[in-house]
Amino acid sequence: MLLVVCDGVSDRPVKQFDDKTPLQAARKPAMDAIARNGISGIMDVIAPGVVPGSDTAHLALFGYDPYKAYTGRGPIEAAGAGISLVKGDVAFRCNFATSADGRHVTDRRAGRIRSGTAALAKALSGMKIEDVDVIFKEGSEHRAVLVLRGPGLDHRVSEVDPHSEGEILRSEPLSPGAEKTARLLNEFVRMSHEVLADHEVNRDREKQGLPKADIVLPRGAGSVGDLEPMSERYGLRCAGVAGVTLVKGLCRMVGMDVIDVPGATGGLDTDYMAKAKAVLQSLETHDFVFLNVKAPDIAGHDGDFRLKVQVIESIDMMLGLILKDLHEDVVVALTADHSTPISVKDHSADPVPVTISGADSRVDSVRKYDEISAAVGALGRIRGMDLLPIMMGMANRSAKFGA
Amino acid sequence: MLLVVCDGVSDRPVKQFDDKTPLQAARKPAMDAIARNGISGIMDVIAPGVVPGSDTAHLALFGYDPYKAYTGRGPIEAAGAGISLVKGDVAFRCNFATSADGRHVTDRRAGRIRSGTAALAKALSGMKIEDVDVIFKEGSEHRAVLVLRGPGLDHRVSEVDPHSEGEILRSEPLSPGAEKTARLLNEFVRMSHEVLADHEVNRDREKQGLPKADIVLPRGAGSVGDLEPMSERYGLRCAGVAGVTLVKGLCRMVGMDVIDVPGATGGLDTDYMAKAKAVLQSLETHDFVFLNVKAPDIAGHDGDFRLKVQVIESIDMMLGLILKDLHEDVVVALTADHSTPISVKDHSADPVPVTISGADSRVDSVRKYDEISAAVGALGRIRGMDLLPIMMGMANRSAKFGA
Asked: Chain A residues with CB inside 8 Å of B329's CB?
């Protein structure tokens, strides 16, 4: 089985472009071939009217109920940064920020700092606060991840991040068991300023007239729910090919083998052909391969119609390469994790088109992969959590329930 | 957002009228314009195969699960019997039963009594016990509904029904506030025997050698729950424009501003133009306006095809006026709360057509608003509870779940 997720590719009609969606405007013979040879439909990735995040959406596409599995963004970012969480950990997404005095934030992104964060992170990671270990790792630009590991932690604490310039807040417990975590979190913020304010990287930045990355603002506290690995849940060897850290983290959280593809950046410059090769190779050793391409979402957030069309056409070339060498027995599903309409420049609740074809799959009259064509296909209107079971059924990998 | 509910407008094909439904036969340019500019589908207002009442249907259309909004089966049976419950009521489903002496049950179904129960119910309904009113209505065969209406009631009382032949139980309070209800319930059972034992219907049954329906056994106590107002649940200022009392009552239950429109009678003579004006005015001060027109349901209950067509054409003129002055950003949904087919003369479980259009809504190939055309539209088959979330999504009023 192969699941291809074009991140945010789903859209709405755009007046200035002949009332077409980017998918309707793009030339995409490979995507249309999947639609022509299989069954199509539309999909509420989480539920009708719910705007999916990339994290909750992918959980649903992997068959996990995001309302049960999801506790904050921290753990997902941590998984994405390659930190393997254990039960009891509390994880936060963080920003390196600029503060005058360790209390007042003047720039929440430290001038979108691009280099030196690895050294700054190293200075923080490995600290101990009371009996709890601090694991800290840099992400892209000003982003980072904090994991607290030790006894008696609870993620239900209030925010320290003011989410704008201003005073740093004091974290308070939001549940009776969370006093210790709130206390450690406040202490971590204080210590981060102590450690970073005079760090070499910041002395250099000061010389260059750049804002110092002299404090860390954690947010999005969460702990790992117990996610049963896909191998156990479905009896499938699963592999994930993705460029962007968040999605990689989700793959790890559900126990996929994450295939590192040099050149798969998660950006607009991602190496599509390297990804195609990685997918074909993974299919030889795995039952289920997941491929995420982030670029359409980026074009959607930018509100750039022409860029989104261009990105779709690049993905289509990659898909063409994959389809050419794909064993005919492989069940292929093509879909999106959410809509990122040009007119909205953010995720929306509009359902996404989905099309599935395989060896002896049913074939409906849909001949194109887009929001309108797919909606009248034989798949009907499904939910994200239904997709993997439907693929397994078509691939004859589902067990009989009953006699 | 504007939600227009044409009460009971949905129908089945009628042989004598060229196998058309009233919606297919009517001239309705405004309704068809909404369909042409948006996406259509069919909707199971509650669930497939469930015949909606107007009360449960509207609860679902406002996004409330009618199975949760009501506690216990009693209120649902009461709604089914056409009794409109208000907050504080306690409702029971009941059996007419046979008892030797008012204490010992010999037949829990009074020989599955088939006739005369309306007269028996009438003898019980309208009684007063202490300061509480008794509303009692027969159902099919031996079934009936009891509603206690008055101050200080609580549905948490134990059963009187032995659920087999034997001694009638004494109801006891299951919570500290339920003493009064338990006392009244025991008293009602005693009085039911007193009133029914010598009733004319039972004297006749005795002559025919049939078991007397000489006592009532209530069970399944329940009350109407506290519904979270729509303003809090969705963050929307909501207004309702309706003529008929039941629907107005439901609007109040969910915290809508109920707009009183002089001349909006809820009947066939309702002042459509006054309603149109009220809708347009309400849209200036509210995020979500709900409009109910009762007349198609009345024509359906009468089994009058021509009248239903005529009513549809009147509603269409009203919609035309509304659409002419409507801001293009308003997301408009047009649907029904249930089907009231000419051939059935009552509500049916047939799904209803639904069409939604708005500023940059997707547009499918459906060009007419009717039961058959809508069913192949891009909305697919949805449920009543999905409608409001879908409208909110299209109006960009939904919050993101996740990152």
From this structure: none
Q: Which amino acid is at B339?
A: S
Domain ranges of chain B: 2-68+228-394, 73-223
Whether B401 has a pLDDT exceeding 90, the answer reads: no
Beta strands A104-107 and A90-99: pairing type? antiparallel
The length of chain A in residues reads 403
Show the 3-state SS of chain A.
CEEEEECCEECCCEHHHCCECHHHHCCCHHHHHHHHCCEEEEEECCCCCCEECHHHHHHHHCCCCHHHHCCCCHHHHHHHCCCCCCCCCEEEEEEEEEECCCCEEEECCHHHCCCCHHHHHHHHCCCEECCEEEEEEECCCCEEEEEEECCCCCCCECCCCCCCCEECCCCCECCHHHHHHHHHHHHHHHHHHHHHCCCHHHHHHHHCCCCCCCEEEEEEEEECCCCCCHHHHHCCCEEEECCCHHHHHHHHHCCCEECCCCCCCCCCCCCHHHHHHHHHHHHHHCCEEEEEECHHHHHHHCCCHHHHHHHHHHHHHHHHHHHHHCCCCCCEEEECCCECCCCCCCCECCCEEEEEECCCCCCCCCCCCCHHHHHCCCCEEEEHHHHHHHHHHHCCCCCCCCC
Interface test mutation site (partner B, options A372, A373, A382, A386, max chain B beta carbons within 10 A): A372
What residues are paired with B251 via a beta bridge? none
Query: How far apart are the C-alpha atoms of B385 and B62, rounded to whole Å?
Result: 7
> SS3 for B317?
helix
Rounded to 5°, angle at Cα A21 from A19 and A25: 95
Q: Is A371 on the interface with B (CB under 8 A)?
A: yes
CA distance B351 to A179: 52
Q: CB neighbours (10 Å) of residue A385?
A: 20
Which residue do the tokens 């589902």 mark?
A398
Q: Which residues of B touch A15 (CB under 8 A)?
A: 360
CB of B365 within 8 Å of any CB in chain A? yes
Residue written as token pair 């299209």: B394
3-state secondary structure of B354: strand
How many residue pairs bridge chain A and chain B with CB atoms within 8 Å of each other? 105
Q: Enter the tokens of residue A263.
A: 């050149």
Chain A: residue whose CA lies nearest to B402: A53
Q: Tokens 């083998």 label which residue?
A: A257
SS3 B289: strand
Ramachandran class of A274: left when φ > 0, alpha when ψ lies in -120 to 50, beta otherwise: alpha
Contact A49 B402 (CB under 8 A): no
Q: Give B235's contacts in chain A (Cβ within 8 Å).
A: none
Beta carbons of A60 and A45 less than 8 angstroms apart = yes
Span A344-393, pLDDT tens digits: 999 999 999 999 999 899 999 999 999 999 999 999 999 999 999 999 99
CATH number of B2-68+228-394: 3.40.720.10
Q: Is the pLDDT of residue B225 over 80?
A: no
Mutate to test the interface with B, among A44, A51, A65 (most CBs of B within 10 A): A51
Q: What is the pLDDT of residues B185-210, one digit of tens each?
A: 999 999 999 999 999 999 999 999 99
Confidence band of A70 (pLDDT split at 50, 70, 90): low
Distances (CA, A) of B340 to B8, B204, B395: 5, 37, 30
Tokens of B401: 């779940």
CATH superfamily entry for domain A2-71+226-394: Alkaline Phosphatase, subunit A (3.40.720.10)
Q: Determine the Cα–Cα distance for residues A263 and A361; give it in Å rounded to an integer.
A: 34
In this complex, the residue of A21, A49, A53 whose CB is nearest that of residue B403 is A53
B395 in contact with chain A, both atoms CB, cutoff 8 A: no
pTM check: above 0.90: no
